[in-house]
Design goal:
two-stranded antiparallel sheet, 6-stranded mixed β-sheet, 3 helices, 105 residues, 28% helix, 42% strand, alpha+beta
Amino acid sequence: MTSLHYYGNETIMSVEQVLRLKPGEIRILEWVRTYEFMENQWGVDEPVPHFLEIKCESVGVRIRKNRITNFPDYVCEAEQVFPDVEQALPIFHEWAKRILEEQGK
């Protein structure tokens, strides 16, 4: 189990925002993570049970789907490494869509 921390070299976005990310943007940002909260219809942040990460590394592009267990603690539920962003992005987007569907967005 790991605890959530914010790092200076990561970009944090909403799940909706990551759906619009393009490969070139990920290469520039290098590490993107989704918020652990999502705004509801009344503009109030509610906890989301999952957050995603996509990170450019020397071995390729790593994507992770993490489940929050007891905030700020979480576990990695799924992890994949791809040779490039173009191959990683469709899976990353699919995971984001599922989170939105689960939250009724």
